[in-house]
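The instructor's notes for this session suggest beginning with a concrete chain rather than abstract definitions. Hand out the sequence below and ask the class to guess, before any prediction is shown, which regions might be ordered.
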Amino acid sequence: MLFDPGQLLATPAALDHLTLNGSSPLSLIRRHLRGDWGDLGADDKKLNDEAVTDRSRIVSAYAIAGIKIYVITEWDRSYTTVLLASEY
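After discussion, reveal the predicted structure:
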């Protein structure tokens, strides 16, 4: 684990989509906490790498059944949220 996720949260829509597609929010959170930023460009991945140490906001994105799911850890590490891109 590269950083503390704080409190874990997920929107009902993200939970529904993940469940319907045989995925778990915890699996995405684990990837996020290991530094697997998912489907981001190189510049955004670099910003996340820097955010681990400079305590900026960290955002990962994962495509699940054609829908983008974000996992976002706030700058103060108070919470990490799983949500659909459409909810961002």
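Then share the key points. The radius of gyration is 12 Å. The helical segments are 12-20, 25-34, 42-54.
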